[in-house]
Amino acid sequence: MTTPVATRWYDRLPLSIGSGIHRLAIASLIAQAALIVSGGAVRLTASGLGCSQWPNCMPGTMTPTPEMGVHGLIEFGNRLLTFVLAAIALAMIIAVWRIRKTHRTIFWLSISLLCFIPIQAVIGGITVLTDLNPWVVSLHFLASIALVAAATLLVNRTGRESRGEELVAAGPLTGTLRSLGWTVAITSALALVLGTVVTGSGPHAGDPSSPRHDFNLYLVTRIHVVPVYLLVIASLLGLYLVFRTRASARLKRGYIMLVVVVLLQGAIGYTQFFLGLPIGVVMLHMVGTALLTAAATNVWDRSTGVVPL
User: CA 20 to 30 Å from 102, out of 133, 185, 226, 278?
Assistant: First the structure.
């Protein structure tokens, strides 16, 4: 008896979560983080209006012209990343299509990543059409943060399935760890939101003619660091507790990563402020925001297990 040969592409799709699907999830997370860094490069090099139109780059053309110089290339390069994100998200949806009913969360996370990409692109277009209004720029950044968080959840789910691991912590202090997980999520979210207000009040507008917040930079910076201090405390306390209980190895590593990222990000934040916000240090801080989002989401996810499989 011979085995029938699959005649449809559908029949060749995976019936379980393997390493290939997990690598796609990791690629999605890396690409979403790269978009944050790329957006930071656009702002810090004053290339926010390098393409003055949307969806066209310039009137009558989708691509930059030589007259637009390097600013047009930087802004257009950031726009092109959208297509990379969409391709990865579409590949993920196709890869999990046959198991969409048994792995609903993985499937809907994949769908949400793809569906939100055009929304994010539209918000980016609005930032250009409003001459980089700082409130719209903040929304554009926070949308990217949300996508990084969703991609982190996808990495966790596919990783657990491919390795057969437990997702949440175990032990007598699970309730305490669960509360700390929520504290990490809330304080990191507040720090990121308030950080956009600081950015909107600072000198790097994305274009010399763009509007800024009429806030005192020193005052909003001081407000921004309050949830950062709370996040540091929660992270250190969580790190202590996971090594005092029977918490999962993944959660222990997650807290180690979180503490390292939070302390480095705090050090970079203070350095950039006291040095007058030099572009290179601010760029490192942008990289740190992507890492912080992923690290905090990972700890929240593994501490609470709120998002089902």
Answer: 185
Model pTM?
A: 0.89
Give the Å distances, CA to CA, from 182 to 19, 96, 138, 178, 297.
30, 29, 23, 7, 10
- In whole angstroms, give the CA distance from residue 140 to residue 134: 10
> 3-class SS at 56?
coil
Main-chain dihedrals φ then ψ at residue 283, nearest 5 degrees: -65, -40
Phi, psi of 58 (to 5 degrees): -135, 160
Angle separating helix axes 104-129 and 69-95, nearest 10 degrees = 160
pLDDT digits (tens, 9 = 90+) for 24-39: 999 999 999 999 999 8
Cβ atoms of 292 and 302 within 8 Å: the answer is no
- Quote the tokens at residue 60: 């009558």
* Measured CA angle at 208 (ends 41, 130), to 5 deg: 85
Q: Looking at residue 245, what DSSP letter applies? A: T
Are 298 and 156 a contacting pair, CB within 8 Å?
yes
